[in-house]
Amino acid sequence: MSVRNGLLALLAERPMYGYQLRAEFETRTGSTWPLNIGQVYTTLRRLERDGLVTGDRAPSRADAAAPDTPAAEGPAAEGPAASAAARAMPVTGTPAARTAVMSPEHGGDSGDGRGIVYRLTAAGEAAAQRWWVTPVSRRMAGRDELAIKLALAVTLPEVDVRSLVQRQRVETLRAMQEYTRLRHQADDSADLAWLLVLENLIFTAEAEIRWLDHVELRLTRRGLGAPPGTDREDNR
């Protein structure tokens, strides 16, 4: 849902090509959640199917260059596709993001939905506004791989759950230290979107470490994942 709603929010600003949406999404979220260009176009097709966006194919380079086409003779092409293309947002963001967008990976103006300028319908505008005023629900949390991994591990005698927890703690601590290093390098005048995302990652890592400490304590109390030679009954 975050990608779907994120694309709607960006299109509420102005029409864009799919590769521009990808670049804007990554730039504005600090490139923390890279998007596959295929995922972007798949999501756009679903939004179009649901009546939330429409797509206008922009004139191809070959059409624009052809000497016998009306578009080449006049100062500007006419029609919905051309007007939508004229309003398409130029790529912004960091030099790295611009370089990534201009690489062949983004698909350019080739087929299968690429080279299309997307815009919101009235229903799409309403959906974007609804997202801003609707709190994110935590009651139906998405699948958490670590929680699922540990939940399964405690049911399987052959899995060393304590080692699993310890390895995960080391990895999460390493990530938190890296995020903290990046935060210290940035001053308060840095891009606000990047700071918000970075601080969210730090707080999330801190919470995960506390949760892992709690998991290890529960394992000890239940006598699960106890070190070799430890009496399980003594750990209850």
TrEMBL record:
Region (Disordered): 52-90
Superkingdom of this protein's organism: Bacteria
Feature: compositional bias, Low complexity: 61-88
Domain Transcription regulator PadR N-terminal, first and last residues per copy: 7-60
Transcription regulator PadR C-terminal domain ranges (all copies): 143-218
UniProt cross-references to SUPFAM superfamilies, sorted A to Z: Winged helix' DNA-binding domain
Annotated protein name in UniProt: PadR family transcriptional regulator
Species per Swiss-Prot/TrEMBL record: Parafrankia colletiae
Origin organism lineage: Bacteria, Bacillati, Actinomycetota, Actinomycetes, Frankiales
